[in-house]
Amino acid sequence: MIILLCGLSGSGKTTLAQHVKMRLSDTDIPVEIIDADVYRQKLFPNLGYTREDRFENIRRLGFIAGKLSGHGVVTIVSAINPYDVIRRELIATYPDVKLIHIDCPVKTLLQRDTKGLYKRALLPEGHPDKVTNLSGVNDPFQIPSSPDLYINTHITRQTEATEMLAGFILDNYQQEQIKQLQPAGRY
Ligand SMILES: Nc1ncnc2c1ncn2[C@@H]1O[C@H](COP(=O)(O)OS(=O)(=O)O)[C@@H](OP(=O)(O)O)[C@H]1O
Ligand SMILES: Nc1ncnc2c1ncn2[C@@H]1O[C@H](COP(=O)(O)OP(=O)(O)O)[C@@H](O)[C@H]1O
User: Fold this and answer.
1) What is the pLDDT of residues 166-180, one digit of tens each?
2) Residue nearest to atom 27 of ligand 1 (CA)
3) Which one of 49, 78, 138 would you pick to mutate in the ligand 1 pocket, going by the greatest count of ligand atoms within 8 A of its CB?
4) Which range marks the domain in which residue 147 is found?
5) Separation of alpha carbons 97 and 84, rounded Å
């Protein structure tokens, strides 16, 4: 299973992915997190935040996730992933991809601003520290129309959000195992 966590920077993708991994550590479900922030720094430092570079980033992350999930690892891809077309491409390319929207109003993200990106995006044009192409501020984020799960981290506390996501993974993992136990064509 590939879990695509999409949502604006600071919405809680990394936090929830890490908590879910911990939460599932006492089960026999192997979980790996592919955090776009980390992979960009370690593997794709030349990619920026244009539409084309974001597509390339997501395609590469999807490829790695496909390999891991092919070995039975529940692979959580934590990336802003703002465009519907590339999300749909991953869903069409790899088996058992689930799309999860981690939502949060920009007003709240401006208050959290753990990386200082939002303040920098709001600087005047031409300011040397200005951040351009920040999704939700000066770059698009297409809201998923029918995600498999929706979590709003402005409303839902971290512990409850973790339970929602862990429960979703457990349910789907178990359903998949039951399907694989059933002989093809008999049911
Ligand atoms: N425009 C811009 N300028 C500078 N830095 C930025 C910008 N947009 C995103 N970020 C930071 O990059 C982190 C990874 O982005 P993503 O790979 O998830 O983006 S995307 O999926 O390719 O759209 C992303 O990580 P998260 O904060 O974890 O979402 C941000 O820290
Ligand atoms: N309900 C919540 N779920 C997840 N994170 C939350 C929640 N409420 C507040 N936060 C905080 O918001 C921040 C989210 O940051 P992070 O997980 O790095 O986001 P992202 O990976 O989407 O950029 C963290 O500081 C986290 O503690």
Assistant:
1) 999 999 999 988 888
2) 9
3) 49
4) 2-104+141-162
5) 14
Evaluate whether residue 177 is within a structural domain.
no
The fraction of the chain above a pLDDT of 70, given in percent, is: 97
67-86 confidence digits (pLDDT tens): 999 999 999 999 999 999 99
Residue 44 belongs to domain with CATH number: 3.40.50.300
Looking at the domain assignment, is residue 6 inside a domain? yes
**Amino acid making up residue 169:** I
pTM, full prediction: 0.97
Could you tell me the distance, in angstroms and rounded to a whole number, from the CA of residue 80 to the centre of ligand 1? Answer: 6
Cα–ligand 2 centroid distance for 103 (angstroms): 11
CA of 126 to the centre of ligand 2 (A): 30
Domain for residue 173, yes or no? no
